[in-house]
Design a protein that fits this description.
Layout lengths: L1 E4 L12 H11 L6 H11 L11 E5 L1 H4 L1 H10 L4 E6 L2 H11 L3 H6 L13 E6 L9 H11 E12 L5 H10 L11 H10 L2 E15 L2 H11 L14 H15 L8 E14 L14 H9 L6
Parallel strand pairs: 1-3, 2-3, 2-4, 4-5
Antiparallel strand pairs: 5-7, 6-7
Helix pairs in contact: 2-4, 8-11
Length: 306
């Protein structure tokens, strides 16, 4: 397994605060692994055996956010494949080496277990779990995936969709507050973006996952591990205890579900995406220019006249 730094990030999309996104990415990568990320990774890994393409080298994109469980699941499917881990931050790179490094005896007996900064070898698979919706420039990220893959390679990713946190949006609207999170992209738009990045025949799928919580504090604690609000027009400044009490009371009143014995419920739309790298377009044969005199001679030679 090789571990290396990822390329630099570009400017973000207009709907996300790029500077805040960079700060949040560092924070959430150190805040512990959300249960939802592990569950989504498990469901996404169940789709991988459907791909007939052999996998001899796969890339795990930023597994400190995607999760150690996510890495283990793919590793179990391709136990003899070479592995590359891509991380943006130096601290996350150190974490990856410590958390994902195999025992020494496996590194001696399996040529796929190696650590290097070489990312030039094209991969068969790029795996990215629950990150795209927090990236300020997702098209650039997809283009990075594209560059990492070989001619027959494919990408598998997951992210949150626009139906996520709809109950939370209702509470904020009732209180007259700005949106609690930045907009999430629809799966059809992700598919269009994959085509723009150079992928072919993207397959998009989605499902709803409902999580329940005993208290509003538990719910907010879970959300903090998933990310932050990156909307450029998000509520500015610090909020006091009175605002927090209104939020907790609003969540308790609006999200309590009799179908779940009074527990608070929250919906997440999870999008799964898969696409192969598009074959390069075939260049047309160069045109041949023939002068009029040459054409006359060619035709007259066959007994034809102009």
């Amino acid at each position: 397994m090789s571990v290396s730094d990822s390329p630099e990030k570009n400017e973000g999309m207009p709907t996300l605060d790029a500077r805040a996104a960079a700060l949040v990415a560092r924070k959430i990568s150190r805040s512990g692994q959300p249960w939802l990320h592990d569950e989504v990774a498990r469901r996404m890994a169940e789709r991988l055996p459907l791909i007939r393409q052999p996998t001899q080298h796969w890339v795990n994109w930023a597994p400190r956010i995607g999760g150690r469980t996510s890495h283990t699941l793919v590793q179990a499917l391709y136990p003899h494949a070479r592995q590359t881990v891509v991380q943006t931050e130096a601290d996350d790179l150190i974490w990856a080496k410590q958390a994902l490094s195999p025992p020494w005896w496996k590194r001696l007996t399996h040529r796929g277990w190696d650590f290097s900064s070489d990312t030039t070898q094209a991969a068969d698979l790029v795996w990215c779990n629950m990150q795209l919706h927090m990236n300020p420039d997702p098209l650039f990220l997809m283009q990075q995936w594209h560059q990492t893959l070989n001619a027959q390679g494919h990408v598998m990713f997951s992210c949150l969709g626009p139906d996520s946190l709809r109950e939370l949006r209702t509470v904020f609207a009732q209180q007259g507050w700005p949106e609690p999170h930045h907009p999430f992209t629809d799966m059809h738009d992700w598919g269009d973006m994959l085509l723009q990045a150079g992928f072919a025949q993207p397959i998009m799928d989605m499902e709803h996952i409902t999580l329940t919580y005993a208290t509003a504090d538990d719910l907010l604690g879970e959300l903090r591990t998933l990310g932050r609000n990156l909307h450029p027009q998000r509520l500015a400044g610090l909020r006091g205890r009175a605002w927090q009490r209104r939020l907790l009371n609003g969540l308790q009143d609006a999200l309590s579900s009799s179908a779940h014995e009074g527990r608070l419920t929250l919906t997440f739309e999870v999008i799964y995406g898969h696409a192969f790298k598009a074959k390069p377009a075939t260049k047309p044969d160069p045109s041949t220019t023939v002068s009029l005199d040459a054409m006359k001679k060619m035709l007259s030679g066959k007994g034809k006249t102009l």
